[in-house]
Amino acid sequence: MEWEIVIGLEIHVQLSTDTKIFSGTSTAFGQAPNTQASAICLAMPGVLPVFNEKALFKAVQFGLAIDAEIGKTSRFDRKNYFYPDSPKGYQITQMDYPIVGLGEVEIVMDDGSTRKIGVTRAHLEEDAGKSLHEDFEGMSGIDLNRAGTPLLEIVSEPDLRSAKEAVAYLKKMHSIITYIGVSDGNMAEGSMRCDANVSVRPKGQKEFGTRTEIKNVNSFRFVEKAINYEVQRHIDIIEDGGEIVQETRLYDSELDETRSMRSKEVANDYRYFPEPDLLPVVIDDEYIEAARKSLPELPDAKRDRFMSEHGLSEYDATVLSSGRAIADYYEAVVAGCKEPKLAANWVMGDLSAQMNKFNVEFENCPVPAEQLALMIARITDETISGRQAKTVFECLWNQEGEVDAIIEAKGLKQVSDTGAIEAIIDEVIANNPGQVEQYRGGKDKLFGFFVGQTMKASKGQANPAVVNELLKKKLDA
Amino acid sequence: MSLDRSQVENIAMLARIGVAESEIENYTKSLNSILDLVDQLQAVDTTGVEPLANPLDATQRLRADVVTEVNQREKFQKVAPKTEAGLYLVPRVVE
User: Fold this and answer.
1) Which of A74, A178, A324, B38 could form a disulfide with A99 if both were Cys (CB 3.0 to 4.6 A apart)?
2) What is the ipTM of this complex?
3) Tell me, what's the pLDDT at B26?
4) Which of A131, A141, A280 sits opposite B84 (nearest CB)?
5) A284 in reach of chain B (CB within 8 A)
6) CA of residue A437 relative to chain centroid, distance
């Protein structure tokens, strides 16, 4: 039987604020346990939440970035459950009136095809603390530094049809949130975490199959692997005549498998009700317009501009606009050399290859954009050839100095002086009378041989364009 | 709508409230009388009335994103039943 895969993602994004969502407690990462857990985070008696304006603003910015409806009146609700990493006994979240309503994003697949993926909603809530289960005399240790950190939970429609699409969607969201700066998107530090709802159904069937939820996957690669594992598990069970149990599962990256998480637990019953400690949050058009004006150019708009203004292909434009760092870098190179296509080739080619090889991010690129721009300018002003540029680039990568100094030091200047090249050509012609005769007799293919000989005799420094032109003139004379 | 005994037991469990076997019947009765009152409210025709999120005619005030809390861990941990290495210790939550 042919199966259709149905995936919906819930992405939790930590908003990059200085303080927690409901208190003036610092959110800095990696501090000593519980040094950033104030009376409010600890739920001491009598404390009250006060909403952080920056968390609200960033949520609205995100909503506008995905063209979503903005909830002009949103509200907080209590989600009740007991777990020691949440001292209040409930999480403040948004149930019925989220700050961000229906929106959508476009994802681009490897083959260049695009798909629109619906975003059901995005709501504000508070993060929980961390439980450490190492042995503390048979007890668990609780660190509440993270408790109360503002989260935006972004819920997608069940629109995704493969693990690859899920990853493309996740990457798109990552790109949007980091572009507009609502979060640092650092998955390793937990600033962006993902739950995946997965089900399968026979192709053509309308009703969804029973779904399972994979919790807290924290890298793009693991999202793909976890979903693929889970999809296969569903198909195997159904094809063996079994039934899928709706449950929450955990992905174990070491064993590359998912495991049931809460076997004994009764169905969740969170008993949501409106949060009595907070009033409805009301924003007006002016507020929304201010948020809109504060947004930088978004990836899709940037991609379109790279295509229309720079004449790049859709693929190149998509790659170069995929992240803010790579886009800023590329634009800085273009600003320096005014050669968008060459800039794109170098940034996506040699530079990206090196960065991948050494696992370096564009934020920490060892080659300054203005140096790469200068190198490209030296290609276009014919100081160096494309081949010589590779050597210059290697030196730039190894931080051996600036472009002009490298060209000088390595003796890389391209010879464009016609007199000098002519002398070399004359010699090549004189040394190869046989080939000259054959060429003149109609064996056109030999032209390449003469170009090669001339380049070799010039130690690779002759300007290939000049060589071509002069050779043609001399041989065809 | 009315609750039976097992629903009351479930609510007590979800709220982590210990209810003695002998009290359950009494609680079931009290809760049901509250639900009766709610039923009465439900009978009111609310067509065209906007849902009320909060009885106060006010909206949420916002706080500037500025750190105002200082580290008082030592103070807080003095009143905690058990701590170690800066962590609050609680009965083990996973097997």
Assistant:
1) A74
2) 0.89
3) 94
4) A141
5) no
6) 59
Flag whether B13 is in a domain: yes
Residues A469 and A94: their CA atoms lie apart, in Å, by 71
Residues of B in contact with A280 (CB under 8 A): 53-54, 59-60
**Does the structural domain A418-476 have CATH classification 1.10.10.410?**
yes
Q: Domain residues for B9?
A: 5-43
- Comparing CB atoms, the residue among A37, A140, A280 nearest residue B90 is A140
- Is A136 close to B16, i.e. CB distance below 8 A? no
Nearest chain A residue to B85 by CA distance is A33
In this complex, the residue of B15, B82, B86 whose CB is nearest that of residue A34 is: B86
| CA-CA-CA-CA dihedral for A169, A173, A176, A179, to nearest 10 | -110
Q: Higher pLDDT residue, A415 or A368?
A: A368
Helix (H, G, I), strand (E, B) or coil at B42: helix
Q: Which residues, listed in sequence order, are joined to residue A130 by a DSSP beta bridge? A: A143
Mean pLDDT, residues A459-471 taken together: 83
Amino acid of residue A76: F
Query: Are the Cβ atoms of B84 and A140 closer than 8 angstroms?
Result: no
Bigger pLDDT: A180 vs A416? A180
pLDDT at A225 over 50: yes
What pTM does this model have?
Answer: 0.80
